[in-house]
Design goal:
Strand order of the largest sheet: 3-5-6-7-4
Structural class: alpha+beta
Radius of gyration: 16 Å
CATH superfamily: Hotdog Thioesterase
Number of helices: 3
Shape: globular
C-alpha cells in the first residue's frame, strides 16, 4: 500500500492506520467503455469516510441535529492510476493526514488487491448547518480523531 501521496510540490504522509471499506463495482458505476466512471471514485471515497466516521462512533445526521454541524468537501486532488471494471472487488482506505479545529485532511486510496487504482487527498471542513460557515468540530469528535492521530504518530 502506498504510504505517501504527492501533490503539486509537497509530500503528504499519512500518520494514522488506514480504515478500509469494501466496494463492489456495479454495472451502474461504469461508463460506455466498461470502466468505472471517474466521478464515481469520489462517491466510493465519500462512502468510506462516512463508514470511518461511523466506526469512530459518530453519525452525521445526529451531529447535524444535536451539534448543528455538517462536513463538506473543501478540496480534492485525485489521481487515476488504473481502470477498474464491472464486478471488481475494491477496498477504499481512509487515512488522516492532518486534523485541525474545523478541518480534516485525508489520504484515500482505491485498491484492487495490492494494485492502487486511484489516490486522492481530500480536505473536509466542519460547517454550521445554518450558515455553512466553518465552525469548530464537536469536541467529542475532535478529541477522538486527535487521540487516534497522535497515537499513530508516536
Amino acid at each position: 500500500m502506498v504510504t505517501a501521496a504527492r501533490n503539486a510540490d509537497t509530500a503528504v504522509k499519512p500518520v494514522s492506520q488506514p480504515f478500509s471499506w469494501p466496494i463492489r463495482v456495479y454495472y451502474e458505476d461504469t461508463d460506455a467503455g466498461g470502466v468505472v466512471f471517474y466521478a464515481n471514485y469520489l462517491g466510493f471515497m465519500e462512502r468510506a469516510r462516512t463508514e470511518w466516521l461511523r466506526a469512530l462512533g459518530f453519525e452525521q445526521p445526529e451531529m447535524a441535529a444535536t451539534d448543528g454541524v455538517l462536513f463538506v468537501v473543501h478540496a480534492v486532488n485525485i489521481k487515476y492510476l488504473k481502470p477498474s471494471r464491472f464486478n471488481d472487488s475494491l477496498q477504499v482506505t481512509v487515512e488522516v493526514v492532518n486534523v485541525g479545529g474545523s478541518r480534516i485532511r485525508f489520504l484515500q486510496q482505491v485498491l484492487r488487491g495490492n494494485e492502487e487504482i486511484a489516490r486522492a487527498e481530500i480536505e473536509v471542513v466542519c460547517v454550521s448547518s445554518d450558515t455553512f460557515r466553518p465552525v469548530r468540530m464537536p469536541d467529542a469528535l475532535h478529541t477522538t480523531i486527535e487521540k487516534r492521530w497522535n497515537e499513530k504518530r508516536e
